[in-house]
Specification:
- The relative contact order is 0.14.
- The protein has helices at 3-18, 41-51, 66-78, 91-100, 116-122, 133-138, 159-175, 177-189, 194-208, and strands at residues 27-32, 56-61, 83-86, 103-106, 126-130, 152-154.
- Helix content is 52%, strand content 13%.
Length: 209
């Protein structure tokens, strides 16, 4: 099966498991994170109403600050079918979400390294990140003119900028599926192993010599 078929099958299975409307074509946006300010949850809170006016299913997995736990529980309750709040950490469900989601939101205030975006790229889940630390280093922003990039990013710690970036990602997802598919493929083939890093260090070392 192709990547697209696999992604759709995973999405339908997860939608069924979470009791969400089963729609393989809706954009599923994921957050697998600690629910804290450091992870950018205050930005999400600020724009959540507006985000949910778009055609998106939001699935959250994580625990943390009761304020955010309750926020997502409330939205799951009031937006049944559009928001799924999994206030727990469950490795199995996290892997199912990586496999099912189309995009992973990581609007961190700071993120020295970050693993979630690397796992997402492997699973063909496009990262939407703030340009900080390891997120900036590992996610190349989508460029429409060059048809390059592996994800979407925004520079300032600003909720409106984040929302515009999510809306831009949705636009590409819905209106330009071929470009989205190519971006996913670039992400899945990016090599973040130590092998690749070692080669870069070797080249750097040689250039210094």
């Amino acid at each position: 099966t192709s990547f697209e078929e696999g992604k759709k099958a995973c999405k339908l299975a997860l939608q069924r498991e979470l009791g969400m409307p089963e729609d393989p074509d809706v954009m599923m946006l994921a957050m697998i994170t600690r629910l804290t300010d450091q992870k950018g949850l205050d930005l999400v809170e600020w724009v959540l109403e507006r985000l949910l006016t778009s055609r998106v299913q939001l699935v959250i997995i994580g625990t943390g600050d009761p304020r955010y736990e309750n926020l997502f529980r409330h939205y799951e309750w009031t937006r049944k079918g559009q928001v799924s709040a999994n206030i727990l950490f469950n490795e199995t469900r996290a892997h199912r979400l990586y496999a099912a989601a189309d995009a992973m939101l990581m609007p961190s205030r700071f993120e020295p390294c970050g693993l979630t975006q690397l796992i997402s790229l492997r699973y063909g889940t496009v990262p939407i990140v703030r340009e900080t630390g390891g997120l900036r280093d590992t996610v190349q922003p989508y460029n429409w003119y060059e048809q390059s990039g592996t994800g979407f990013s925004f520079a300032n710690y600003n909720a409106d900028e984040m929302l515009q970036t999510i809306f831009y990602a949705e636009q590409v997802f819905y209106d330009n599926p071929e470009a989205w598919k190519s971006m996913v493929k670039r992400g899945m083939t990016t090599d973040f192993s130590w092998n690749a890093s070692a080669k870069k260090y070797e080249a750097l070392y040689d250039s210094l010599g």
